[in-house]
Every structure is written in structure tokens, then in C-alpha cells.
Amino acid sequence: MNKADLIELAATKADTTKKVANALLDALIDSITKAVADGEKVTLVGFGSWEARERKARDGRNPKTGEEMKIPATTVPAFSAGKQFKEAVAARQ
Question: pTM here?
Fold first, then answer.
């Protein structure tokens, strides 16, 4: 499923237009992105949570040349699935 499919499904379920569903989805994504970038944790109970995590510096290799290199520390976004989301996915098997 891509963004267009998600917008169409949301518009149908919410009985609204695709334009409104697109605006709402964009606002949601933008809000989550800004909050996580500012160091906040965003939690949607039952679905999951997003947060920024620190990744330590480490040694690595250039896959093309095999040369050793230092990979600097960085902050990355992370998502943890909630209990209901995990259960719904597990029930599909």
C-alpha cells in the first residue's frame, strides 16, 4: 500500500474527500516528524510510538573498497509497534 492507496482508504472510511484525507495525513506526518525531531516521543496507544534514538559511533567498512572507516554518532528515528498492532499482525498468519 502506498500513500495514494492509504488516502483513498481513509477517505472512504471517514466518508470524506481524498483532498481532506490527504491534508489530514500530511498534517499527521508533519506533526510526528517535527515532534520527534525536537526530541519528543509520540505515542498512539495500541498502534505504536516514535522517538529519536542515539546511535553510537562505530567502525565500519566501505563495501566498495573494503577500506575501514569511522561511522560517526548520529540520531535516528525509531518506531516501536504497540500491543494491539502486534496482535493484529500476528493474527493474520
Answer: 0.82
The one-letter amino acid at 43? T
- The grid coordinates of residue 65 equal 573498497
4-24 residue pLDDT tens: 999 999 999 999 999 999 999
DSSP string, the chain: --HHHHHHHHHHHTTS-HHHHHHHHHHHHHHHHHHHHTT--EEETTTEEEEEEEE--EEEE-TTT--EEEEPPEEEEEEEE-HHHHHHHHHT-
Structural Rg of the chain based on CA atoms? 18
